[in-house]
Amino acid sequence: MTEQCHAGGFKDAVLANSTAANTSFAAACTFDNSSMGGDDFDPFAQDWITGLAAHDPNGAAPSMPVPVPASAKDAFTYANAVCDLDDSPIYADKPDNEGATQYLTGLQSRMGV
User: Fold this and answer.
1) Reported confidence tier of residue 111, pLDDT bands at 50, 70, 90
2) SS3 category, 13
3) Among candidate residues 58, 54, 65, the one with its CA nearest the CA of residue 103
4) Which of 5, 24, 46, 111 could potentially form a cystine with 72 if both were Cys, beta carbons 3.0 to 4.6 Å apart?
5) What is the structure's pLDDT at 113?
6) Which of 9, 85, 84 is closest to 47 using CA atoms?
7) Strands (E), the chain
8) SS3 at position 42
């Protein structure tokens, strides 16, 4: 996950050059846009981490349901749903839908969670 301005411009290079068997990519904005900033946290990064951790930096629950544990794809789905309207989040994974199997604890199938 990357949050800086124009971060989406890294998507194709990351996916094409990753030597990992499973790769997911999330960015706060497309290559031609800036990401929103915040006083303490980038809003999209904070929301993505909140989706993964099931709480925000202050301990509050996510503002909408997120599976626990959350996959990389779940975290993006949450962050995208609650993001600042001026952000333009993008997501991709390789092979397709592998982000749904990526957890902080490693790869898991939905059935095995």
Assistant:
1) very low
2) helix
3) 54
4) 24
5) 47
6) 84
7) 23-27, 90-94, 102-103, 106-107
8) coil
Tokens of 13: 């290079």
Give the tokens for residue 9.
């411009």
Q: How many CA atoms, within 13 angstroms, populate the side-chain half-sphere of residue 103? A: 14
Q: How big is the chain by its Cα radius of gyration, in Å?
A: 14
Burial class (CB in 10 A: 0-12, 13-18, 19+), 52: buried
Tokens of 101: 């199997």
Helix, coil or strand: residue 1: coil
Name the token pair of 32: 């031609």
Q: What would the pLDDT profile of 42-82 be if each residue is shown by its tens digit?
A: 899 999 999 999 999 899 999 999 999 999 999 999 999 99
Query: What is the residue type of 56?
Result: D
SS3 102: strand
DSSP state of 43: H
